[in-house]
Amino acid sequence: MYLNKVQLYGNLTRDPEMRALPSGQQVANFSIATNRTYKDKDGQKKEQVEYHNVVAFGRTAEVIGQYMKKGRPLFVEGRLQTRSWEKDGAKQYRTEVVLENFQFGPGPAREGGAGASYDNSSRQAAPRDDFEQKAPSDAGDQINYPEEEINPEDIPF
């Protein structure tokens, strides 16, 4: 058995670009930034940012286009797909995440309910009752990471 599964949680780097296929189906293109913090060989704290291209189709694309804006957090789940095309005689490639499921992160996108999520396979939005809604921080919608690294010996299990 093979597996092609991607899960990302990050902030949108730009507003979703909406367009329609000739069939009339909606398509949303956007990208998500994720980051990781680590210490280099000299012990200096460094941060590395990765950018991920995401594409959504149908009703999923419509919901993303309606509620998501640049800077807002989003959890996405999907599969990797690489497509190619010819431009000026040179072959171009683009690898992107084809969105299957998503969940809004904290912030204004969730005004309609606490922790709304969307599963592309069921084709309907479902509010999640098990999500604990937190008050927005003074720093906006950014995640506050601990200043120091977590020591595995401090974990109680």
- The helix/strand series, from N terminus to C terminus, equals EEEEHEEEE
Distance between the first and last residues' Cα: 33 Å
CATH fourth-tier homologous superfamily: Nucleic acid-binding proteins
What CATH first level would be assigned? Answer: Mainly Beta
- Unreliable stretches: 109-114, 122-139
Task: Count every beta strand, where a strand is a DSSP E run of 2 or more residues.
Answer: 8
What is this structure, in a nutshell?
The chain has about 160 residues and is mainly beta.
Folded structure, characterized:
By secondary structure, the protein is mainly beta. The protein has a single domain, classed as Nucleic acid-binding proteins (OB fold (Dihydrolipoamide Acetyltransferase, E2P)), CATH 2.40.50.140. Helices cover about 5% and strands about 50% of the residues. It is built from one helix and eight strands; from the N terminus they run E-E-E-E-H-E-E-E-E. The protein has a five-stranded mixed β-barrel with strand order 1-3-4-6-5. Strand 2 (about 15-20) and strand 3 form a beta hairpin. The longest helix has 10 residues, at about 60-65. It is globular and about 55 Å long. Residues about 110-115 and about 120-140 have low confidence and may be disordered.
